[in-house]
């Protein structure tokens, strides 16, 4: 069973409206005072406030959660993104808890990414983002996002594209060889995205190069997944040599092998 969560923010509500039509979701009884929709198999809930602060869903839902969200970019670059939630450091200014990761859902998240790639004729790139922001959830979850700038965020055709990709991923099997964690690279994980779309890996969590010193969180990233993580993929040249040594040592202690890309 899958629960889709959306808010009144423009991109979120536009994706939700398109997905309701795509899946035939109709309004049913509210849950916890929140508006709810269903087709008897999938469910959708409209929440008030920010999606990154929806930790309360832990007490309401015990199945897979997919957040339908806008994507913000400092450079205003349009994109379609997917990512799991969590904070690598003490900073939880965007929800969640310090040094805590939500439970990821590697194959479901990859399923959406691959569905986007197969049908994308928009000229806008689809991508993994590294794990970031809240909420903190103990059930498998991830964000599917549209945005980068105001024009993209408000575009209903792009929202429909995202909704169709999400809908087509339900019940289908993502193609991949191993479940992995990604370490290194930029926040937009181009290499990891390409490897995943090619069917080599389904990524559970991705730690960008900016958090490569947070090696104490590697064990958490392995544990917080609804599928067993087989390996680590390291974007080797993006990480300082001394940090690589510590990462490799930590992976060895945890019994996890790694691949360099």
Determine the mean pLDDT. 96
What is the CATH third-level topology name? Aminopeptidase
Gap between N and C termini: 35 Å
> Percentage of helical residues?
25-40%
Structural account:
Strand 13 (231-234), helix 7 (241-253) and strand 14 form a beta-alpha-beta unit. The strands form 3 sheets. This protein has an 8-stranded mixed β-sheet with strand order 2-3-4-1-5-10-6-9. It has a 4-stranded parallel β-sheet with strand order 12-11-13-14, sandwiched between helices. A two-stranded antiparallel ribbon has the order 7-8. 28% of the residues lie in helices and 26% in strands. The protein is globular. The chain has a single domain, classed as AF0625-like (Aminopeptidase, 3-Layer(aba) Sandwich), CATH 3.40.630. By secondary structure, the protein is α/β, with parallel strands linked by helices. Helix 1 crosses helix 4 (156-169) and helix 2 packs across helix 4 (156-169).
């Amino acid at each position: 069973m899958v629960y889709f969560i959306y808010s009144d923010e423009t991109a979120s509500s536009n994706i939700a409206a398109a997905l309701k039509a795509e899946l035939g979701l109709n309004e049913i009884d509210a849950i916890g005072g929140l508006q709810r929709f269903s087709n008897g198999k999938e469910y959708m809930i409209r929440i008030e406030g920010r999606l990154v602060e929806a930790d309360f869903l832990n007490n309401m839902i015990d199945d897979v959660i997919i957040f339908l969200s806008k994507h913000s970019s400092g450079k205003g670059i349009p994109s379609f993104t997917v990512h799991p939630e969590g904070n690598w450091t003490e900073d939880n200014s965007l929800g969640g808890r310090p040094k805590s990761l939500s439970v990821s859902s590697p194959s479901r998240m990859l399923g959406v990414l691959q569905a986007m790639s197969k049908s994308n004729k928009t000229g806008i790139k689809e991508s993994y983002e590294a794990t970031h922001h809240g909420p903190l959830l103990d059930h498998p979850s991830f964000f599917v996002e549209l945005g980068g700038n105001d024009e993209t965020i408000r575009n209903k055709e792009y929202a429909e594209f995202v909704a169709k990709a999400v809908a087509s991923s339900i019940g289908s099997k993502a193609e991949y060889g191993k479940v992995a964690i990604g370490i290194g690279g930029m926040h937009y994980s181009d290499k990891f995205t390409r490897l995943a779309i090619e069917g080599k890996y389904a990524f559970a969590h991705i730690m960008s190069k900016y958090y490569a010193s947070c090696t104490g969180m590697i064990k958490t990233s392995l544990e917080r997944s609804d599928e067993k993580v087989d390996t680590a993929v390291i974007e080797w040249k993006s990480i300082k040599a001394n940090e690589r040594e510590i990462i490799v040592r930590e992976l060895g202690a945890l019994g996890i092998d790694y691949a360099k890309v």
